[in-house]
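Appendix C: a fully annotated inverse folding record. The material below is reproduced so that readers can follow the format used throughout the book. The structure is listed first as tokens, followed by the designed sequence.
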């Protein structure tokens, strides 16, 4: 608890925080009239211009001692984001998040000024969800900015942002966004309890760390259990349909819950094109899932030109070579990535054929496989397809047709065992079956026919 004796409060703060040792923790002793005040804040996270105006007004308007802190703040501090705090630990926690604290001699209450000013990058186009038409803006690493991008699109008075603090050390702000009239109350309560009771020190990787804490996954289930997006328009469309968006501070992506496997077959570009073209692109994406998964294994089953062992080695070589190209170009500087992938692919493929390490057919089908996988809009979904393809290649290379069938069964088992939220089906609306919802997930309809709300009744 905060003491009415200012010196006791100062001593506690100096014992708790490395004042004088850590350069970013700054303090200031002030006088508002004849009352002594101690200010505590962080350098770099506090808006000094706002603080200077507040202090200037307080020092020029104050006369005598402060008798009533509530009336004093109401009459002298016009800053909107001002609150009171009676617990010292809560006050220090607020300061470490970027707020400022005023401790006034004679009062057991601290005045918390939310003068946070975080270093931010500009709102730019998403790197992984680009569209030719549509909004060219994405979420950034600020929870306040991200919630504003959503509120700008959904001006519904029922839109709610509930905030939680996750991590005993990081104290990361996590907000859930929903409209209560079309969102499952069970889902909201589940997330409230989960976020309140998460036992973790820090959310090191932001949304990825939170995803693994919300849903426990097994090593044999590579399919994503949670949908993430960097686009505000996509997040808003899901919120309007009854989903919940989870915003994590310091993360440029937003989690969408609940999640089903069919959501990974959709992309924003489908809705920024004409009705016919949107359906055509979505149909191509479905074909790419099958091509990315089955092209190389089926070729291994039906080819008779070379031995099975040699075919197996060729296929693994092209698989790992394609992965090598992908990751090398991803980490190369942007001005070199295009030429690196093109020249490297031509040189290595030609050399591999001449050295009899692979065959032209394998390179062709491998290139088709890679293009089909890259056409999938969700990266984690595409990576899961690639892992399943490797499993099929291994099973087919070792056991032939029987191995191919066994591999398909293992993949089906893995997808079925993909965990999701309690009481939610990963295959909805296929199971439980909902004809209308399934049609709107598979086919791009006009805007007048929105997707049905995914509430508890529809499940």
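Designed amino acids, in order:
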């Amino acid at each position: 608890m905060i003491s009415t004796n200012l010196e006791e409060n100062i001593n506690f703060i100096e014992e708790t925080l490395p004042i004088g040792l850590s350069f970013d923790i700054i303090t200031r002793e002030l006088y508002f009239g004849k009352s002594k005040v101690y200010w505590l804040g962080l350098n770099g996270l506090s808006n000094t211009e706002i603080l200077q105006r507040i202090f200037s007004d307080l020092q020029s308007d104050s006369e005598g001692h402060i008798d009533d802190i509530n009336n004093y703040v109401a009459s002298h501090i016009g800053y909107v984001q001002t609150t009171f705090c009676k617990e010292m630990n809560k006050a220090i926690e607020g300061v470490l998040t970027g707020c400022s604290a005023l401790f006034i001699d004679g009062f057991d209450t601290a005045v918390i000024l939310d003068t946070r000013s975080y270093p931010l990058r500009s709102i730019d186009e998403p790197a992984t969800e680009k569209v030719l038409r549509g909004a060219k803006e994405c979420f950034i690493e600020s929870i306040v900015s991200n919630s504003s991008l959503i509120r700008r699109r959904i001006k519904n008075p029922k839109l709610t942002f509930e905030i939680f603090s996750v991590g005993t050390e990081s104290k990361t702000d996590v907000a859930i966004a929903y409209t209560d009239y079309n969102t499952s109350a069970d889902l909201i309560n589940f997330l409230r309890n989960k976020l309140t009771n998460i036992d973790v020190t820090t959310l090191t990787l932001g949304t990825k760390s939170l995803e693994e804490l919300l849903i426990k996954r097994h090593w044999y289930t590579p399919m994503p259990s949670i949908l993430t997006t960097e686009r505000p328009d996509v997040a808003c469309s899901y919120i309007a349909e009854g989903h919940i968006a989870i915003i994590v501070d310091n993360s440029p992506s937003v989690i969408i819950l609940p999640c089903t496997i069919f959501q990974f077959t959709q992309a924003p570009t489908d809705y920024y094109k004409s009705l016919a073209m949107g359906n055509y692109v979505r149909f191509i994406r479905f074909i790419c899932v099958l091509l990315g998964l089955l092209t190389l294994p089926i070729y291994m089953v039906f080819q008779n030109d070379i031995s099975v062992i040699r075919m197996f080695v060729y296929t693994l070589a092209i698989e790992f070579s394609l992965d090598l190209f992908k990751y090398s170009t991803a980490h190369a500087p942007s001005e070199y990535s295009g030429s690196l992938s093109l020249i490297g692919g031509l040189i290595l493929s030609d050399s591999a054929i001449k050295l009899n390490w692979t065959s032209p057919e394998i390179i062709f089908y491998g290139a088709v496989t890679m293009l089909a996988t890259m056409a999938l809009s969700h990266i984690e979904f595409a990576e899961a397809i690639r892992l399943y393809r490797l499993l099929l290649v291994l099973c087919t290379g070792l056991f032939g047709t029987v191995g191919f069938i066994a591999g398909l069964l293992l993949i089906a088992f893995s997808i079925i065992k993909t965990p999701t939220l309690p009481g939610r089906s990963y295959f909805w609306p296929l199971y439980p079956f909902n004809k209308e919802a399934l049609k709107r997930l598979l086919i791009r309809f006009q805007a007048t026919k929105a997707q049905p709300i995914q509430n508890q009744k529809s499940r």
